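Hello,

Our lab assistant flagged a job as stuck in the queue for most of the afternoon. It eventually completed. Since we weren't sure the result was trustworthy after the delay, we are filing this so someone can double-check. Below is the sequence as submitted and the structure that was eventually returned. Let us know if re-running is recommended.
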Amino acid sequence: MASFAQLNDDNHVVNIIKIANDNDILNSDGNESESLGIAKCKSLFGLNTEWKQTWFSENPVRFRTAIVDGEYIPEHNVFTKRKPYASWTLNTTTYEWEPPTVQPATITATPEQWVWQESSTSWVKESIPEPEAIEGGTYSWNTTDGYWEWTETSE
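-- returned structure --
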């Protein structure tokens, strides 16, 4: 099976399909051909659709496997997660989006976390609310790993 990512006009991945490795997508040497696969996708989904091949393997050809709601960056020929904020830039070694300032160290001592605030282009602390009580136990903040931990109470 060959996998193809359908792209919208902004190069965002909107669909991923698998098609059989039949004679429609194999070249004269019997190898998968991206261009033949794209032609097959267009014949199935419409000539006005855009496609790129993606690979589900340890070493995908376009740096990583395409994901729905991810994006394709033509100038680097890679699939990435979608750009989360306008101020973030693409690291062209890891192909990860990076904020203009590094995220501060994880907070574990108190129920707080760092969240990106685009309006100030900075990291701000935000409280992590205690989960709703569940009968038979209580929540306490795990200061070692930084999460709410539910413990069953004995009767």
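-- support follow-up --
The delay was a queue issue, not a problem with the job. The result is valid. The chain has a mean pLDDT of 93. The CA atoms of residues 42 and 48 lie 7 Å apart.
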